[in-house]
Design brief:
alpha/beta; four-stranded parallel beta sheet; two-stranded antiparallel sheet; 8 helices; AAEL004078-PA; nucleotide-binding; succinate-CoA ligase (GDP-forming) activity; nucleotide binding; Succinyl-CoA_synth-like
């Protein structure tokens, strides 16, 4: 019965996770089966269901959440604060992030954040991500690593150039792009006249970013 109830709840509220652990059986004095009690439970909800589950999302509490995470979430981006000096902007959480983290650590530095711009970045998103990154006083350099066929890299390059001008970027910026229209994108960066380092490989990008900190 408990499994049926959980499944019904899972579907009804469009949950991403419903976990009841542990369950306890409390027998009564008459030796009857007693009660099954949920001692603890964890529920997570699909962000994409927010429009249909307004009552649930209205109960969300942000007291313990980094303000940068709240702000960046408004633009459908993912941000996780960490400890370090290199601000990171990537696309995708599964493939780019583990080697990204490892390569930076192998060069004796630590990322200050994880910031995923997703697979379809717009110029406005690029501006917001750089504003969020530079609002952190711990960020001493920024490393951008974006690749794929979905993203139009001229849009990314235009966004980086315009954002750099808009916010008056004061920290070094190293950019590694690979994908659609990447040659045109690199040309935009090179002809911008700004202090933007464009590199070809991720390892080279990480080493160059660490080097500008020393």
């Amino acid at each position: 019965l408990m499994q049926i109830i959980c499944y019904y709840l899972f579907v009804k509220v469009e949950a991403a996770q419903i976990e009841i652990n542990p369950l306890a059986n409390r027998p009564d004095r008459n030796q009857s089966p007693g009660q099954v009690i949920s001692v603890d439970a964890k529920l997570n909800f699909d962000d994409n269901a927010q429009f249909g589950q307004k009552d649930i999302f209205a109960m969300d509490v942000h007291e313990d959440t980094d303000p940068k995470e709240i702000e960046i979430h408004k633009y459908n981006l993912n941000y996780i604060a960490m400890e370090g000096n290199i601000g990171c902007l990537v696309n995708g959480a599964v493939w780019p992030w583990p080697p990204y983290m490892d390569i930076i650590k192998l060069n004796d530095e630590i990322p200050v954040n994880f910031l995923d711009e997703g697979g379809n970045a717009k110029e406005k998103q690029v501006l917001k991500t750089l504003q969020i990154l530079t609002s952190d006083p711990n960020v001493k350099a920024i490393l951008v690593n974006i690749f794929g066929e979905i993203v139009n890299f001229t849009t990314i390059a235009d966004g980086i150039v315009n954002a750099t001008k808009t916010i008056g970027l004061k920290v070094p910026l190293v950019v590694r792009l690979k994908g659609t229209n990447v040659d045109a994108a690199k040309k935009i960066l090179e002809e911008s006249g700004l202090m933007i380092e464009s590199v070809h490989e991720l390892e080279e990008a990480a080493k160059k970013t660490v080097r500008v900190l020393s």
